[in-house]
Amino acid sequence: MSALPSSLRVMRGRTQIATLDWTAIGTAYQYSKSFLAKQPGPREGIGFAHPPHPDRVEHGPIHPFFANLLPEGPRQQRLAESLGIRPDDAFGWLAAMGGSSTGDVWAQAEDASPAKETKLELPDRFLFHNLREQIRQAKEHATQNIAGVHAKLTNLRIGTDPQTVGKVPYGFGGSPAILKFGSPETPHLAENEAFFMDLAKRAGFRTAKNCVLRDASGESALLVIRFDRGPRGLRIHQEDACQLRGLHPTEKYDVSLREVVEAFQRVCASPMAAALEVVAQAAFAYLVGNTDLHAKNFSVLVSPKTGLVEPSPVYDVVSTLLYPPHEARMALAMDGRDANLAREHFLAFAERFGVRRPALEARLSAMTAVMPGCLDRILDLPFDPRTLKRWRDEARLRTEALSA
Fold first, then answer.
1. How far is CA 348 from CA 260, 335, 352, 355, 369, in A?
2. Which of 117, 154, 336, 393 is the most exposed place for a label (fewest CB within 10 A)?
3. Domain span at residue 200?
4. Which residues, in sequence order, are bridge partners of residue 30?
5. Which tens digit of pLDDT belongs to each residue from 250-293?
6. Distance, CA of 289 to CA of 395 (rounded, Å)
């Protein structure tokens, strides 16, 4: 890989708002004078917790806000080996991403062009292997498809040719998208996530639009429409709970549900509605056995229609209990509890944040109402019968615990 720059332009949408410099002790960012001259509002900076100001902000290897835009875990390690970037070189990763990161804040070198999207075309007998190989060989695309932990391609735009449009739901053609793959540790991830995203939608949640694709070899992947992108290249501001609280992504399991609620209430237009949504998401995760609902899986975004801050649609909804012997305890504790939860635990917790009991009762009832049908449909998932039986037995217990 070519030599990395020592300074990056920090962009919000199409506007440069700051510079991020590599220094002898780590990194530092500073809002640009031209941006400050426009007298931006307190929420027009890098993030809600980082309003525009003239001071230079020094940090260690990378500021937590930017660290949360980068790939994590095994995925980062695999990419590091192929791209020649050290896993601990956060500045290098940020420079390499080229603007494909979540939300509208991104960084690039002075002489770099914005990220180019990879067109996703699905001809007859297409193979995901060929698409991954095409991106791997084109470094400008490979470095722009690197967010998250799981194997995924993040900077795609669905083709509008007849063959592609015929393989995806109506309206998907031309949309910015993510393509997610399973792994030996998480087989059938696409089917798992599609099933529980559909269940969440039936239970009343706003969800990221998605569908399962299967190639000529039988490999499956989940195609997810990006809700942080809009028409004509619009980027939508999005922050997860780690960014809201100024935490590094390695700390995503080190917070409580209370801290997530408080972070949402500080920035959302309706604090009560924000608390209701966070608690409802946690209750649904408990109900279906999604024990990986950590701080990076709670996000807010700025509505492009109203300009108000609101919880984002739910995403990354899977049942980790389908991957035994996965941890059965919840990722984030609620009042010190991360197991054996009941309806009253969620109701009492939510009331402390101004949520009216009937409001959450209605959400909980909507969740438990969809479970009887789910217990039958889940048998269609391609997991072994013993795993599905264990899941159904546990789901019945949790449904009873959350029922009125």
1. 16, 10, 7, 9, 21
2. 336
3. 118-225
4. 19
5. 999 999 999 999 999 999 999 999 999 999 999 999 999 999 99
6. 8
Pick the last residue of a domain from 195, 225, 255.
225
What CA–CA distance (Å, rounded) separates 49 from 36?
Answer: 17
Query: Model pTM?
Result: 0.93
Confidence band, pLDDT 50/70/90 cuts, at residue 154:
confident
E strands in 205-340: 210-214, 220-225, 238-240, 299-302, 309-311
Tokens of 100: 């494909």
- Rounded CA separation 92/321 (Å): 36
Same domain, residue pair 135 and 26: no
Number of domains in the chain: 3
Q: Which of 99-108, 110-119, 240-249 has the lowest mean pLDDT?
A: 110-119
Q: What is the pLDDT of residue 148?
A: 46
Q: Could you tell me which residues come within 8 angstroms of residue 131 by beta carbon, excluding any fewer than 6 positions away?
A: 118, 120, 153, 179
Helical axes 385-402 vs 343-351, angle rounded to 10°? 50
Co-location of 194 and 261 in the same domain:
no
Query: Which pair of structure tokens corresponds to residue 68?
Result: 């949360």
- Distance, CA of 271 to chain centre: 22
Looking at residue 138, what is its pLDDT?
60
